[in-house]
Amino acid sequence: MNALNRDTAGIQSKLPLKVIQFGEGNFLRAFADWIIDQLNQKTGFNAGVAIVQPIEHGLVHLLEQQQGLYHVLTRGLTAGEVINESRLVTCIQETVNPFVDLQAYFELANNPELKLIISNTTEAGIEYDPQDKPKAGELASTFPGKLAQLLWQRFQYFAGAAEAGVGIIPCELIDSNGTKLKEAVLDYAQLWKLSQEFTKWINESNLFANTLVDRIVPGYPRNEIESINQALGYHDKLVVACEVFHLWVIEGPKQLKAWFPANKIGLNVKFVEDLRPYRTRKVRILNGAHTAMVAVGMLAGLQTVKDAIDHPVVGVFIRDLVLNEVIPTIDLPVEELRKFAAEVMERFKNPFIKHELQSISLNSISKFRVRVLPSILDYLEIKNQAPIRLCKAFAALIKLYQLASEGRFELKDDPKHLEFFTSLKSQEPIVTKVLSNQDMWGQDLSMVQPLHQAVLAGYANLTVDKTQSKTI
User: Fold this and answer.
1) What is the C-alpha separation between 95 and 133, in angstroms, rounded?
2) Which helix (H) or strand (E) segment is 426 a member of?
């Protein structure tokens, strides 16, 4: 069997470099590059991608070995039908490791056809460090610093021409990622005492987008790779598996649509004026369902998300919780929300992904506060009554942490939260004590009477499956 490269795959054509991508990891290759590759095939986008390795140790050397080629395996359910497809991605034309070849990195900025910069450098990647002061010929330590260096090089090379501006689309999972990245770049311009003309060029000629991305990407299917390579007909060291669902919401100037027409070929890419409702939708429906499911599922003795959503009691509970109590709190068309919820439930059933409830349980207190509690409070305000299922999920969370303090479950969370539950005495009003912990919830929830009463009732009504000695 041949190693995968452009000779063995019979792909010799070269594409003009229109995209610089900071990050060569699984997510961007199964998401952004997968989308660009289809745009090239279906619209004549004709865009090559140059990959920049943003950290010192990465995968660029493997991409070089395979001359930018790799396969994406798209696997999951769509309308109940099992999807298991592969795509050879061919859009990556060049790879650069700036820690090894800084000159090659700066030369990317001199390309007149460059129109887009995409990134995913982890949530901690978009940061400003006032100690990041590289000398001439040195690489900045932070990602925004590296980007500022690249844009400064482009500004100088093209003498500040407006048409040399680019669209910058970060995919890091933080709120206002584009806005924060731009702020950091401008902070470096000031720190390094770059010209006012450069600052003006950044503000007027470059487009920074805020984005929301969503796709589960398990990555390299190590346990199946031999059979997968047999089916593909190549030794591919960079196979990346992902789910069918994908969503890219881009909030930015309308000009970005012309530079990146990713919404034209039926993919789930949306250009919007305000992505906050979509972020709320994802956090409350997808992430909120995950978090609500954890305690209920673990107490019922279930292991995975698929186990929970397939369970005749837990699965119905979670679906009803989302449809009847979460959706009414989100300011988007109901049919659109129901469609998204149905897609989420189908994602939970994906037979190719084993998502352990134990792993999702990490830091459940802070997750519940961000993902579930806002739905409870908004429902109370809108309906003037407590959401029974969400409050029962809250009660189950309290019970799970109580049992963990007794050694019956293993949970990982902020030590102060775990210590708080350990300090509780069995004769104390446990629910009231937990709800009144302002450090956990940002307020004294025991004073919100409908919520307090509903969580108390949910806690009292939790029953015990004696065959498993677990509470459900």
Assistant:
1) 26
2) none
pLDDT score of 471: 45
pLDDT digits (tens, 9 = 90+) for 358-386: 989 999 999 999 999 999 999 999 999 99
Which one, of 272, 244, 145, 255, lies nearest residue 204 by Cα?
255
Neighbours of 68 (CB within 10 A): 23
CA-wise closest residue to 458 among 418, 419, 430, 420: 430
Residue matched to tokens 């999972």: 173
Tell me, what's the pLDDT at 289?
97
Q: Which residues, in sequence order, are CB contacts of 360 under 8 Å at separation 6+? A: 290, 291, 293, 294, 305
Residue 326, burial from CB neighbour count under 10 angstroms (0-12, 13-18, 19+): buried
Q: Which three-class secondary structure string do you get for 398-465?
A: HHHHHHHHCCCCCCCCCHHHHHHHHHCCCCCCHHHHHHCCHHHHCCCHHHCHHHHHHHHHHHHCCCEE
pTM above 0.85, yes or no: yes
Residue ranges, comma separated, of all CATH 3.40.50.720 domains in the chain are 2-272
Task: Decide if pLDDT at 469 tops 80.
Answer: no
In sequence order, what E strands does 215-354 have? Answer: 234-235, 240-242, 247-251, 269-272
| CATH topology assigned to domain 2-272 | Rossmann fold (3.40.50)
**Half-sphere exposure (CA, 13 Å, Cβ side) for 26?**
15
Half-sphere exposure (Cβ direction) of 378: Cα atoms closer than 13 Å: 16
Task: Tell me how far apart the alpha carbons of residues 363 and 273 are, in angstroms, rounded to a whole number.
Answer: 33
Residue type, 172: E
Query: Cα(414)–Cα(430) distance, rounded to whole angstroms?
Result: 19
Q: Which residues contact 429 (CB under 8 A, 6 or more apart)?
A: none
Residues carrying CATH 1.10.1040.10, the chain: 276-471
- Using only C-alpha atoms, the chain has a radius of gyration, in whole angstroms, of 25
What does the pLDDT look like over 102-135, one tens digit per residue?
A: 999 999 999 999 999 999 987 678 999 999 999 9
Q: Which amino acid is at 174?
A: I
Q: What H or E segment, with its residue span, contains residue 223?
A: none
DSSP letter for each residue of 194-219 = --HHHHHHHHHH-EE-EEEEE----B
N- to C-terminal Cα separation, the chain: 52
Query: What is the assigned CATH class of domain 276-471?
Result: mainly alpha
3-class secondary structure, 118:
strand
Separation of CA 132 from chain center: 27
52 within 8 A of 106, measured Cβ to Cβ? no
Helices 177-191, 196-205: axis angle to 10 degrees equals 170
